[in-house]
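Hi C.,

You asked whether I'd gotten around to modeling the 294-residue construct. I have! Everything is below, sequence then structure, no commentary in between.
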Amino acid sequence: MCDTCGCNITHGNESLIKPGGKLARTKSGKEAVTVLHSLLQENDHTAHHNREHFDQHNVLAINLMSSPGAGKTSLLEATIQLLDPSIRIAVIEGDLETENDAERIRKHGVKAIQIATGSACHLDAHMIHQALHNLELNEYDVVFIENVGNLVCPASFDLGQHHNVVLLSVPEGDDKPSKYPVMFRSADLVMISKADLLPILDDFKSEHARRYLQDIASTAPVIELSAKTKSGMTQWLDWIKQQISNRKDYLKQHPVQSGHAHQHEHEHLSQRREGAKNTKVISDKAIPETGSPL
């Protein structure tokens, strides 16, 4: 979809197509399709870099996706309140404008980096890479990435996360998996959120939602929960702890190569210094020197 509307050109990757950038010219010097394809390739390269960086620090990265208003931030607030305090978490928030969601997270004493995407309807790997410049990953066990509310474009952009979690809220209707199959196929876990409304909005049938997921060949487990009443939260918290354990076991069997890790950290530090020339941080929000939102 982003190849059609052009929103895959974001503030995170636009330097690649500006004069002097890596993708400033295509092979023939003019085909837009080649540029868009190359941008996605560059995104995947940066996503791989991000994932290696998470792994180097034994951090689990979880990408939360849903439509606007499905309850991602409320879920994170309830998670902060109920999760074992020994599990250290940070949050990267994505919205077109405002720091509203990040401020909600910070009130709970959790580090939150706000990315304001401007006109882009999704986060991309370059934006996450910039946000990681403001996180000391060795201080965390889990980084939650709350993507921009959108059931289309975020599914197409790898951020370097280890797992995708997609929320389907009861007020939206139970047929969203059939309408947005790419998003729901990308899910490693589907959560039916705002489940406290099921007795009121009785046109939402959980069994229908599960059938629609099966119809699109999704094998993701489904959890029904309510961040408001906290019902179903135990299953969600257990899932998080299991993924942390699984990731640690995986990294024991597939350790990050020490030579590569050193090069990776050096590269990351160099980019941090370079980025500092053009970016300043105000209350954990990265804002370009021009004043336009990051």
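If it helps when you're writing up: The chain is about 40% helix and 15% strand.

Thanks,
B.
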